[in-house]
Specification:
125 residues, five-stranded antiparallel sheet
Length: 125
Amino acid sequence: MLMLKMEINKNHWGFAYPHNPSPRVDPVIVVNRFRAGPGFDRELQPAIDILGAKPGCLGIELGLNLDDPELWVLVSRWENVGSYRRALGGFESKSVVVPLLSRAIDEPTAYASPEEVGENRPRGD
């Protein structure tokens, strides 16, 4: 059974690391969905701990699909896109977080306010 160390915020489910180190300027939401497989539960908590300790992390939420017990979602909120990108750098993230994220369902993951995004074009256009 998967056991996670998380604080509960009455306004959100499974809200881990609910710190807000500075006012939000250009918040980014990152949504990673996973089809759980062998070893998924062992990789999850260390990655959450590392990401949650990174500067700019506003919160991490974990959810299990109501209809499909193998489908999970990891939602993280960041002060800005730079904070998220920097969180994935460094030895610790590259050795623990990136391997977990490589198991995510292949789909776009980063979201921002429509006002912040502006005209949304695929990279390379």
